[in-house]
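re: ur question from the group chat, yeah i did fold both. here u go
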Amino acid sequence: MTEAFRALAELGGARDPQLLARQLTLVFDGASARAGARVETLDGLATATVTVLLDAAGVAQA
């Protein structure tokens, strides 16, 4: 999964695609674990978090 995120981050123009890929993997894994454990519904939280990471990495929005 991290490699797929890295490739997409590179295509999106991220300044450090490997770092962004690791960050996105962390968010994905954490969101999956919390949702799977039914700890919370994550209403908009994952999207907002990823948006901040993409902006900070310099990825252009489509």
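okk and heres the other one u asked abt
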Amino acid sequence: MLALMLSLNVSANEELRQYVDENTQRLVQQLNEEQGLFESDPEAFYKRMDQAMTDFVDFRRIAARVMGRYARQTSPEQRDEFVERFKRSLFESYAQALVGSADDFEINVKSASVNPNNDDRGSVDMEVTSDSGNRYQISYSMYRNSDGVWLMENVIVEGVNLGLAFRDRFAQEMESRRGDVDEVISNWGDAVASLNLDDEMDN
């Protein structure tokens, strides 16, 4: 029985690793293919990459966690608006860098681990190697939804929990803007731009 359980666990881990590897390489390939579109039509680029990521990244779940306890103060319309602002801020902050280096890095999805106490939760470790030889450790937090599909719900880069970093920034913005949710949502792009994650990862 123990051997069977271990075998099933190893199989589940490898299945998750392969799933993340396939989707990650697919997104990198599409990023390569859409490089020219980013320069000529950024809006079309955003829509195509958004569609490509929807089946792999749960932006709505991530955005809700970023809002944290403040989500209870918002209307469905405000939450929808924040999801879009959140996605847009990520593209605006990082798309230029990704497009500029899409051919200059390699992603190696190393291992996956399904939570033994909850087989709907898992983590996947990978290593990104730049053209100059720099290596970055990245971990995806994954969950399996009610349809049985694995989706990304958080990312940790070089020990920096991006979900927590964004949630802390949202709380700071709520405090500085005296609880005006609409103002925080409207200015979220600037808030993300001022969040210097590169320095945190370097540290």
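fwiw on the second one: The longest helix spans residues 2-33. The radius of gyration is 18 Å. idk if thats what u expected
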